[in-house]
């Protein structure tokens, strides 16, 4: 493709060379460059991509997109200057892949908690309606039944457009994706027009990146200036402000407040939830195989999305009622020892409080919580999560999540500050496997062990090592090691 054809939707200045150049590849990382590549230099948080321009040229880059002057660029290289390279990349990527989004319907879900769950529900509804979907998010990226590699919750714009192109080639009609606040802030979904946007909620997380809750909220609000229908949780205190900033058709859902999709006559048990929604003057009753009030919110967001995608309500109902569960989200691991184990991805204060409140409603025995907090992530949530775990549990094991570059003991000490505000007895066990083992040893009949924070993850990041680690697998192996055969049940 000619370079000028990639640039025709943006403003730019040619610093040197020809715009007629043929471009075979685009890269924002010098390690991905090969022949005839346009290398996009991005000023990052850690390093400056402009410093890799000469490296990129050695590897075959023939054109550079820059936002500042770089010295010593050979004269045969085309240099294009723009105001902000990160902002322009999505438009160039969209042009390179022939604007794949124009031919598919995009459904984006944003919010602190519930994105993965809600995207799985919407995906299930679409599949029930015989649509071939693309799914993009934390657990996996998927094209129809085929998993494709995923590393971020929301990929970088160039990778995202490449994935959209692959999805279109494989005849996907609807893409359901998680849209993280990082993605919205860092322009990863610019150049995407969404048919539907869903806002689940906004609670404390990621202040290491956004600095204030207002910035965090405003990042989420961006989605509702990119979509046709905005489906918004009106019970969330930030819902009204998101609506104020929106320029789409707004549809609300909730339980407490008046809403377009309002759940009522709610019944909850340890086996599932039931609720009604009135649609077109008809009361529709839903019976779901999942637990927790928060999952009613996730279901309402999905029901509203299905409705605005023109999917018949009976199809939506069947899809949700057949849903087996989302991996690592309140996933039950039964043992025949009389206690039960729940693995959940709660890794922020609100998620942890929600899941513990839900468990407390049904617990017949004690609640034993095993958890930690991720390293190189928002530190302010650590004592808060410690206090929440202590408040709702009868015994806690503070252990490691993904410590990343931090010392696990330091993270645990920060969690402990909150735990000590409660009367909950606790132990500190740095090794997560030993922590889980300790909880299992301590459990008695009817107790519930909650293992929070890592859910579906199959790895643990310790310094620069990534080791295989899977909470469900660890629980099963410990139970089997005790010559007791656990059965896994995904609720
Ligand atoms: C804070 C954040 O999101 N940072 C992202 C950002 O990094 P950055 O701007 O700091 O990049 P950098 O490392 O300084 O590098 C600058 C430029 O130099 C390039 N480079 C670098 C080295 C080299 O040898 N050659 C080279 O060309 C890089 O590719 C980049 O273009 O751009 C990078 C390229 O796309 C991302 O990989 C990186 O994600 C980091 C690794 C990350 O951990 N992000 C997390 C926090 C994230 O995005 N999480 C959300 C989910 C959160 C949630 O909702 O729970 C997600 O959507 O996944
Ligand atoms: N609607 C909700 N409100 C509050 N908590 C929720 C909600 N849905 C799920 N949770 C809790 O939050 C955890 C994470 O849920 P989920 O993975 O669906 O969220 P997410 O927004 O995709 O998270 P991430 O930002 O890490 O991708 C769950 O394991 C559960 O404990
Ligand atoms: N999307 C979240 C996931 C956190 C999961 C937790 N296990 C951790 O590693 O901190 C994040 O990147 O902050
Ligand atoms: Mg997610």
From TrEMBL:
Q: Which residues carry this modification: N6-carboxylysine?
A: 220
Residues reported to bind meso-2,6-diaminopimelate: 377, 401-404, 453, 457
Annotated Mur ligase N-terminal catalytic domain residues: 22-71
The answer to whether keyword Protein biosynthesis applies is no
Q: Which InterPro entries match?
A: Folylpolyglutamate_synth_CS, Mur-like_cat_sf, Mur_ligase_C, Mur_ligase_C_dom_sf, Mur_ligase_cen, Mur_ligase_N, MurE/MurF_N, UDP-N-AcMur-Glu-dNH2Pim_ligase
User: Which parts of the sequence belong to the Mur ligase central domain?
Assistant: 109-305
Specify the protein name. Answer: UDP-N-acetylmuramoyl-L-alanyl-D-glutamate--2,6-diaminopimelate ligase
Native source organism of the sequence: Defluviitalea saccharophila
Species lineage? Bacteria, Bacillati, Bacillota, Clostridia, Lachnospirales
Encoding gene (name) = murE
């Amino acid at each position: 493709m000619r370079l000028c054809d990639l640039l025709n939707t943006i403003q730019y200045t040619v610093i040197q060379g020809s715009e007629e150049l043929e471009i075979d590849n685009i890269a924002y990382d010098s390690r991905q460059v090969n022949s005839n590549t346009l290398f996009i230099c991005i000023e990052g948080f850690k390093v400056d991509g402009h410093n890799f321009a000469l490296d990129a040229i050695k590897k075959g880059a023939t054109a550079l997109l820059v936002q500042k002057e770089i010295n010593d660029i050979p004269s045969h290289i085309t240099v294009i200057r723009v105001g902000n390279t990160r902002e322009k990349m999505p438009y160039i990527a969209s042009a390179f892949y022939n604007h794949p989004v124009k031919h598919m319907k995009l459904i984006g879900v944003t919010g602190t908690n519930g994105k993965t769950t809600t995207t799985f529900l919407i995906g299930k509804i679409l599949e029930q309606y015989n649509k071939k979907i693309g799914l993009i998010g934390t657990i996996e990226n998927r094209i129809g039944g085929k998993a494709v590699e995923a590393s971020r919750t929301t990929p970088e714009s160039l990778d995202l457009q490449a994935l959209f192109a692959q999805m279109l080639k494989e005849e996907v009609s609807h893409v359901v994706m998680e849209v993280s606040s990082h993605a919205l802030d860092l322009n990863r979904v610019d150049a995407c027009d969404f048919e539907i946007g869903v806002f689940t909620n906004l609670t404390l997380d990621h202040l290491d990146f956004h600095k204030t809750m207002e910035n965090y909220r405003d990042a989420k609000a961006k989605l509702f200036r990119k979509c046709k229908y905005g489906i918004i949780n009106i019970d969330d205190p930030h819902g009204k402000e998101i609506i104020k900033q929106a320029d789409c058709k707004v549809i609300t859902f909730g339980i407490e407040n008046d809403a377009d999709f309002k759940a009522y006559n709610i019944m909850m048990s340890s086996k599932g939830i039931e609720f009604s929604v009135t649609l077109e003057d008809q009361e529709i009753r839903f019976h779901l195989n999942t637990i927790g009030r928060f999952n009613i919110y996730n279901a309402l967001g999905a029901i509203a999305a299905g409705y605005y995608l023109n999917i018949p309500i009976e199809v939506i109902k069947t899809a949700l009622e057949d849903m087996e569960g989302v991996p690592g989200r309140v996933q039950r691991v039964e043992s025949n020892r009389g206690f039960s184990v729940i693995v959940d991805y709660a890794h922020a204060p609100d998620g942890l409080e929600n899941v513990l409140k839900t468990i407390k409603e049904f617990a017949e025995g004690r609640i034993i919580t095993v958890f930690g907090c991720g390293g190189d992530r928002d530190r302010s949530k650590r004592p808060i999560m410690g206090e929440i775990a202590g408040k709702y549990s009868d015994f806690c094991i503070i252990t490691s999540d993904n410590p990343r570059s931090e010392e696990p003991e330091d993270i645990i000490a920060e969690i402990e500050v909150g735990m000590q505000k409660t009367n909950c007895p606790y132990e500190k066990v740095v090794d997560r496997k030993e922590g889980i083992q300790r909880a299992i040893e301590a459990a008695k009949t009817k107790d519930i062990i909650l293992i929070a924070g890592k859910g579906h993850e199959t790895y643990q990041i310790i310094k620069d090592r990534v080791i295989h680690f899977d909470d469900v697998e660890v629980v099963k192996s410990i139970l089997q090691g005790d010559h007791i055969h656990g059965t896994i049940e995904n609720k």
